[in-house]
Write a structure and sequence with these properties.
Keywords: Oxidoreductase. InterPro entries: NAD(P)-bd_dom_sf (IPR036291), SDR_fam (IPR002347). With 270 residues, this protein is α/β, with parallel strands linked by helices. It has one domain: NAD(P)-binding Rossmann-like Domain (Rossmann fold, 3-Layer(aba) Sandwich), CATH 3.40.50.720. 48% of the residues lie in helices and 13% in strands. It has a 7-stranded parallel sheet with strand order 3-2-1-4-5-6-7, with helices on both faces. Helix 1 crosses helix 8, helix 3 packs parallel to helix 4 and helix 4 runs parallel beside helix 5. The radius of gyration is 19 Å and the shape is globular. The termini are far apart.
Length: 270
C-alpha cells in the first residue's frame, strides 16, 4: 500500500532514533501516528514535535509486556482508527563477551529484540487479518542479522528477526499484508546509552572489547531522517530487505558463496 494519507502507524521505539526518523517520514505523508516507547520523556518531546504535522498519540510501553501491548493497541485504535502500518522497531544493542554470558543477559536481549517483535506481530497481525484490508509490517533487525559477527547476543536476536520477517512475508501475502525487514548498518542514534540504561550493569563493554570504536562508528552513521526516507522507499518497492548503506554487501556476498560451496561435498562427480 502506498496511499499513506489517513493510514495509522504504530511504531515501537518511536520516540527516538530510527523510530523517530520513521515517524517523521510518515507524518509528513499524512499518516496518523501512535508512538510507543519506554522513555516517557522522549515520548513527550516527540509527541509535541510531530503533533504539529499530523495526529499523534503516545503510549509508554515495554515491548516485553504482552498485556500492555494489547492495551496500547486497543487505546490507539479507539483514538486513531485501525492500525494498518506496524513498525516493530524497539531494540537494544547488547554485548557480553562469550566467557561472561548469563541467562540474565540472554533474557534481556531476546526479550526486547525478539519477543518484542513477536508481541507486536501477535498483537496487530490478527487484527489486520480479521479486517481483511491488508497492511504493512516493518521489523527492524540489523546487518548483523544477515552476517554474524562475534557478538553472539546481538547476532542471535537479529537473525531471529530476519527469519521471522522473511517467513511472515510469505504467510502474510495471502492476506494482503506486506512485510519488510530493516537491516541497518551504523545509524547515528543513542542506542548504546539506551541499552546500558536497561542492562542493570550486565552488558558493559570492557576496555579492548570495541566500545570506543562502536560508539565512534555509530556517531558517524547515517542520520535518522535519512533512514526514515529509506524505509518509506523500501516499503513503496515492497522490498523484503531494506538496507541503509552498502556496509554489508561484500559480507553478504561472501556468506552466500560459502553457503553454496557447502553443497559441493554432496554433488555427484562426473
Amino acid at each position: 500500500m502506498t496511499d499513506w494519507q489517513g493510514s495509522v502507524a504504530f511504531i515501537t521505539g518511536g520516540a527516538q532514533g530510527i523510530g523517530l526518523g520513521i515517524a517523521r517520514a510518515l507524518g509528513k505523508r499524512g499518516v496518523r501516528l501512535a508512538l510507543a516507547d519506554i522513555d516517557e520523556a522522549a515520548l513527550a518531546t516527540a509527541g509535541a514535535e510531530l503533533s504539529a504535522t499530523t495526529d499523534v498519540v503516545t503510549h509508554p510501553l515495554d515491548v516485553r509486556g504482552r498485556d500492555a501491548f494489547a492495551a496500547a493497541a486497543d487505546a490507539v485504535e479507539a483514538d486513531l482508527g485501525p492500525v494498518n502500518l506496524l513498525f516493530n522497531n524497539a531494540g537494544i544493542a547488547p554485548y557480553t563477551s562469550l566467557s561472561k554470558l548469563s541467562y540474565e543477559v540472554w533474557d534481556l536481549a531476546l526479550g526486547i529484540n525478539v519477543h518484542g517483535v513477536v508481541n507486536g506481530v501477535q498483537t496487530f497481525v490478527p487484527r489486520m487479518i480479521e479486517r481483511g484490508q491488508g497492511g504493512y509490517v516493518v521489523n527492524t533487525a540489523s546487518g548483523a542479522g544477515l552476517v554474524a559477527g562475534s557478538n553472539v547476543l546481538y547476532s542471535t536476536s537479529k537473525y531471529a528477526v530476519v527469519g521471522l520477517s522473511e517467513s511472515l512475508k510469505v504467510a502474510g501475502a495471502k492476506y494482503g499484508i506486506d512485510v519488510s525487514v530493516l537491516c541497518p548498518g551504523y545509524v547515528s542514534t543513542g542506542i548504546l546509552g539506551n541499552t546500558q540504561a536497561l542492562a542493570d550493569g550486565h552488558l558493559v563493554r570492557e576496555p579492548g572489547e570495541g566500545s570506543e570504536e562502536s560508539a565512534a562508528a555509530i556517531a558517524q552513521g547515517v542520520g535518522i531522517d535519512e533512514v526514515g526516507e529509506i524505509v518509506i522507499a523500501g516499503m513503496e518497492a515492497k522490498a523484503t530487505w531494506i538496507h541503509t548503506d552498502l556496509m554489508m554487501k561484500k559480507y553478504i556476498g561472501m556468506r552466500g558463496d560459502m553457503l553454496l560451496s557447502s553443497f559441493s561435498a554432496h554433488e555427484p562427480t562426473l
